[in-house]
Predict the 3D structure of the following.
Amino acid sequence: MENKSMKKKWLFLLVLGAIAAILAACSSDESASATSEKEQAKVLQYQSVPGSVYFPELAEALGYLGDIKLEKVSDMTGGPESIQLTATGEIDFGYAFNGAIIKSHAKGVKLQSVVGAYGSDNKTYGGYYVLEDSGIKTAKDFIGKKVAVNTLGAQAEFIIKQFLRDGGLTDEEIKQVELVVVPAASAEQVLRSGQADVVGLSGVGRDKALETGGIRLIFNDIDLFGEYTAGSYFFSDKYIEENPDTVKTFVEGVAKAIEWARTTPREEVIAKFEEIVSGREGNETTENLKFWQSPGIGQEGGQIEEKEFQVWLDWLVNSGELEEGEVKVEDLFTNEFNPYAK
């Protein structure tokens, strides 16, 4: 009898211990989950350009980012730099031309595009311009000339080379077209002063130059590719894994800001942009904001479509810069966080 009694006591103690362990584990999981949520980033460091407003900045001003705050750390010079800084963790998110994102992925830089950033439509597009009296009219006329672009290895280089190939130039002839890097803000002046024969102009910079006059369009990107979303905002894979809720709030806010800009009267959008820029530290000009025309993004809420990467992936494979199958489109982007995604 005594042995049976002892066994019952031990069994009772074992069951009690097991229940306590389960409750402790549940409590620990809940605590870890709460801690995880609490520890996710609430400040996003990024780059932008003075006198302009990016969709994340618009989203913050409209109250679409909740308790997430943006912190600008420097001025942006181009997509390749933005990719590098995001990959190394010096900034939290960046944006770049989709073709440049593909090239970086092939080199082992693992970024995930989460929402569209910019593109071209019949109101907002990138054009390549010469002075009105220039003798340059066709692709053949580019041989031996200087073409100013904002950065190498990005959208401008892709587009120019496509135009030259479509115009019948051989690879050897294309190598004779000199691409020179010029800040976007200086492009118009570089053309007018004769430091370059052709310059790429887009957005407000293009419209301002056209208003001044004396320049002529050779071709634009929608002549080659139609209306399209050209670039996207991205985070590193590591950042998304560690801060999924932050990324979700960011994407939802940016998507809503894109739709706000698309559906709000142009004058009201420009007024909001002016309010944002005027509220910054320093003495940023609002002069160029009046030339804003449209978001230039093809899909509702900046959803990313496979074709927006596939076209550039095919281009890189056909030009011999990548091997077939070296990069898979599905590894480059996600619409998981976008509330507009079907």
